Every structure is written in structure tokens, then in C-alpha cells.
Amino acid sequence: MALESRITQEEIKKEPEKPIDREKTCPLLLRVFTTNSGRHHRADEFARGNVPSSELQIYTWMDATLKELTSLVKEVYPEARKKGTHFSFAIVFPDPRAKMYKLKEIGSTVSGRKGPDDSMTLQSQRFQIGDYLDIAITPPNRAPPLNTRMRPF
After folding, report:
1. Which DSSP string corresponds to 76-99?
2. Mind listing the pLDDT tens digit of every residue in the chain (153 residues)?
3. What pTM does this model have?
């Protein structure tokens, strides 16, 4: 019988984060994969050493916020700068038991608007060095897809 941890977002946010001195701490290489379809990449696209072609490499720290990462992505993709563009973030990590990658949605931001996930950090979501970040970008003229975890019924 497998046991599963059920930790709420509030409990994750309550954990004290160690402040990172960006002057003294070496940044990590964050491999970011983006889509403009509003949907995340499939986990099997990361299988057997393969990765999607839309890779951005960002040097950052574990205390980087989703809003900070959004602004870095907007620097590279001018079309994502439009007000109302939706950014959905997911961590892609290897599952040692299943010998495959899993995708865990961690939050979202909207260009030009403040939101509850803006100050969420990689560290608070248990990001580990070596994991990937997948960002689904939805233009402002299209509604973001419904969150599969929140069913309307």
C-alpha cells in the first residue's frame, strides 16, 4: 500500500525560507521550456534524455519568484509582453520509482496584473537543482485552459 503526502499550498508557504544572499551565492542554471498553446508539454516529451526544442536557459537563484521568472521570459518573447498574457508554471522532475518524468503545476501569473502566485518561489515549491520548469503561455485573447485539478462539478 503506497502512502501519499497531502500537503496544502498554505502549509508549503508557511515553511520558513532561508534568505539567499545573491551577492555570495552562485546562481543555478534553470532549464525552462515554453509553449504558446496554453498547455504544458507532455511528461513523455522529456523521456529518454529528450527535451522539447523550445528551451530557454536562465541563471537564477532558488528564491526567484514566479513574477521574476515571468519578466525574464517576457524579455525573450515580445509577444508575451501583452497585458493579460497568462503564464502557467509547472515543475518537471524525474520520478525514480516509475523511471519517467512527472509534471507538477505550481502556480500562474498574468502580465500586467497582480496575483496570489506572484511571490511564490522555486524553493517554496520544492524545486530541486536539475528539475526543469515548463511554462504554458496563453495570449490575452484566448482564455487559459481549465485547471484539471479544479473540476467545475
Report:
1. H-GGGGSTT-EEEEEEEEEETTTT
2. 444 545 555 554 555 567 788 889 899 999 999 999 889 999 989 887 889 888 999 999 999 999 999 999 999 998 888 999 999 999 999 988 888 899 999 999 999 899 999 999 999 999 999 999 999 999 987 765 555 444 444
3. 0.79
